[in-house]
Design brief:
Layout (H helix, E strand, L loop, with lengths): L1 H30 L2 H27 L6 H15 L5 H23 L4 H27 L4 E2 L5 H23 L2 H11 L1 H6 L4 H24 L4 E2 L1 H4 L3 H13 L5 H20 L4 H15 L3 H16 L4
Antiparallel strand pairs: 1-2
Length: 316
C-alpha cells in the first residue's frame, strides 16, 4: 500500500509540475525577448519531431528515416493552402496529408524489416523531393513557393498547442492496450502475431499518427520562411536529428526524448553560433560518447544513479 500511495503521489506531482511548466511556456512570449521566442519555437519543433519519431520507432524497433518526408509534406501543404485557408485549418491539413501518405506508404512497406525498412524510408524523402522538383520545373515552370508569414508569437502558440496534443496522445497510447501491443511487436513480432495481435494494422496506424504531428509541425514552421523549395522542405537532417535526439535523451520514458531534443537542439544552436567551424566535429564527439558509454541516454544515466543511490541507502 505504501508503494502504491507513493506512486500516486509521484503521478500527481508530475502532472502538477507539467501544468506549471505549460503555463509558463504559454505566457513566455508576453515577457520573453523575440530571440528567445524564436529559439524556444525551434526547440519545441525538434521536440515534436523527436517524440513523434519515438512514438512509432521506440516501441516497435523499426528505424524510420521518413521524418523529413512528412515534415516537408506539411511545409508544402501550407505553401499551397496557406492563402486559401485560415491558419489552423491549414496546419491540420498539413498533418492530415502526411497522415494519409503515411497510411499508404506504411501499408506497402511495413512488411519490410530492419535495414530494408530504414533504407526505404530514407529513399521516400528523396523520392518526394525529386518528384516535387520535377513537377515544379517541368509542369508549373517555377521552382519553390512563397508563403504567407505569421508573427513569431502566433507560430509559438500554435506549435506549443501541437506539442501539448502530441504529449497527451503519447501518454495515453503508452498506457493503453494499443501501446502494450506495439511494445510486444518490438520485443517479438512473430509471438505477438501468434497471440492474435494485428501487427500490420497496428504498425501502419502508429506510423500514420506519428506522421500527422510531423506534418502539422512542418505546416506551422513553414510560416516562418518567406520562400521554400524541395531542397529546403525535405532536408535530410530532419530525418537524422530526431533519431540522434531520441538516443541522446533515452527512449525508456516519455520525457526522455523531450529532454534529449530540448538539450540537443539548444546545444546545436550554441555550437552553431559560437563555434561554427567546429560544430560538426564537436557534435560527432558528443554523440559517439553517448552511444558508446550511455546507450540508454540521459534518462538511463539518471535511472542508474538513482538505483545505485537506493542500493547504497540503509534499509529501514
Amino acid at each position: 500500500m505504501d508503494i502504491i500511495r507513493g506512486i500516486f503521489k509521484m503521478s500527481r506531482l508530475w502532472w502538477l509540475v507539467s501544468l506549471i511548466l505549460l503555463v509558463l511556456l504559454a505566457l513566455f512570449p508576453l515577457f520573453g525577448s523575440a530571440y528567445n521566442v524564436i529559439l524556444i519555437t525551434a526547440i519545441i519543433m525538434y521536440v515534436i519531431l523527436t517524440v513523434s519519431w519515438t512514438m512509432f520507432s521506440g516501441p516497435t524497433g523499426y528505424l524510420s528515416l521518413a521524418t523529413a518526408a512528412f515534415f516537408g509534406v506539411g511545409i508544402y501543404t501550407m505553401a499551397v493552402l496557406g492563402e486559401q485557408l485560415p491558419l489552423l485549418p491549414a496546419v491540420i491539413a498539413g498533418g492530415l496529408v502526411s497522415f494519409i501518405i503515411a497510411l499508404i506508404v506504411g501499408a506497402i512497406t511495413l512488411r519490410l524489416r530492419g535495414v530494408y525498412f530504414a533504407i526505404f524510408t530514407f529513399g521516400l524523402v528523396e523520392l518526394i523531393k525529386h518528384l516535387l522538383l520535377y513537377w515544379e520545373v517541368n509542369v508549373t515552370g517555377t521552382r519553390g513557393r512563397f508563403i504567407v508569414l505569421e508573427t513569431n508569437n502566433t507560430i509559438y502558440w500554435v506549435i506549443l498547442g501541437i506539442f501539448v496534443v502530441l504529449m497527451l496522445t503519447s501518454y495515453f497510447i503508452r498506457r493503453s492496450k494499443y501501446g502494450l501491443a506495439l511494445r510486444s511487436i518490438g520485443e517479438n513480432e512473430e509471438a505477438a502475431a501468434h497471440l492474435g495481435v494485428n501487427v500490420n494494422l497496428l504498425k501502419v496506424f502508429a506510423f500514420a499518427i506519428s506522421a500527422f504531428f510531423m506534418g502539422a509541425a512542418g505546416a506551422i514552421m513553414a510560416t516562418r520562411w518567406t520562400y521554400v523549395d524541395p531542397y529546403v522542405a525535405f532536408n535530410v537532417l530532419f530525418s537524422f536529428l530526431p533519431v540522434l535526439m531520441a538516443i541522446f535523451g533515452g527512449m525508456g520514458q516519455l520525457y526522455g526524448p523531450v529532454i534529449g531534443a530540448a538539450l540537443f537542439s539548444y546545444l546545436e544552436e550554441q555550437l552553431l553560433t559560437r563555434f561554427p567551424e567546429y560544430f560538426m566535429l564537436t557534435f560527432g564527439i558528443i554523440l559517439l560518447l553517448f552511444i558508446v558509454y550511455l546507450p540508454d541516454g540521459l534518462v538511463g544515466l539518471v535511472s542508474r544513479l538513482f538505483r545505485r543511490r537506493r542500493k547504497g541507502s540503509p534499509v529501514e
